[in-house]
Amino acid sequence: MRLVLRAAFLALLGLPALSLSAQDPKWVFTGESKHYTIQSTSEKKHAEQVLAYMDLCFETYARFLNPAADRMPKKKFNLILYTGVDEYKKNGGPGRYGHYDGKNLVGYYHENQMLPTFSHEGMHQFTDICIPNFGRVPSWYSEGIAECIANNEVRSGKLYICLQKGPVPEIRVPVLKRALLDNKHIPLKDLLNYDKRKFQENHKLLYAESWAFCTFLLTAPKLEDRDKQLPDGKYKAVLVKFHNSLLDPKMTPAEAATVAFKVNNKPIDLDALEKEFREWAMKFPYEPDPSEEPKKDEGGEKKDPPKK
Question: Which structural domains are found in the chain, ordered by start?
Answer without folding.
Answer: 1-130 (3.40.30.160), 149-283 (no CATH)
